[in-house]
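Input record, target 12 of the design panel.
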């Protein structure tokens, strides 16, 4: 019995050590911003309340976009999201929030089909090809950015600039764990297998 307990203890602490190392790598990479002038920024969606108000996480993403927009680092912002379970449209809520912060309506483009990270990457790359844009900056939470970059590479665009929302909380521990599972899934699967539209 003692031997079994010892092996279980070793196993648990081994898993914890692996998680800590992987989480540290993810966080370090997620906090490496690449902020340079770009043709467009894309803000990935997040929870929107029934009232139409963006969640604190989403507000932080949008606030970061506004901050960089005011620094004239890009002339337009793509807001990408889907429809919440409560029926609210993430992109409309994001546009309204940006406009309240002084971003002109004509500088905001909607991607209402961005239900997940891969959908957003494919839609944004399509917009870039359509408009001739060459440089993009992706804005999301820091722990999400490594997977965003991977998604854009799979969508055919390698040189992605990134910036993270200035929002941190205890929920990040769960989100980091989720990303440690999601990243290898994205790495191993094809874009068609990852998108909601891939069939």
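The sequence produced for target 12 reads:
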């Amino acid at each position: 019995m003692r031997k079994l307990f010892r092996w279980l203890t070793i196993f648990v602490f081994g898993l914890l050590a692996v998680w800590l190392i992987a989480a540290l790598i993810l966080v370090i990479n997620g906090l490496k911003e690449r902020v340079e002038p770009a043709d467009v920024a894309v803000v990935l969606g997040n929870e929107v309340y029934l009232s139409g108000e963006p969640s604190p996480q989403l507000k932080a993403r949008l606030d970061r976009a506004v901050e960089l927009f005011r620094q004239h680092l890009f002339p337009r912002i793509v807001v990408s999201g889907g429809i919440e379970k409560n029926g609210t449209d993430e992109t409309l809520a994001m546009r309204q929030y940006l406009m309240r912060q002084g971003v002109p309506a004509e500088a905001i483009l909607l991607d209402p089909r961005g239900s997940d990270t891969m959908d957003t990457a494919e839609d944004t790359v399509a917009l870039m090809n359509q408009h001739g844009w060459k440089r993009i900056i992706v804005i999301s939470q820091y722990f999400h950015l490594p997977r965003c970059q991977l998604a854009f590479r799979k969508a055919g665009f390698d040189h992605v600039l990134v910036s993270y929302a200035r929002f941190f909380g205890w929920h990040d521990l769960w989100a980091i764990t989720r990303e440690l599972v999601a990243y290898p899934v994205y790495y191993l699967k094809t874009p068609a297998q990852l998108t909601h539209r891939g069939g």
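Residues 112 and 120 are 9 Å apart (CA to CA).
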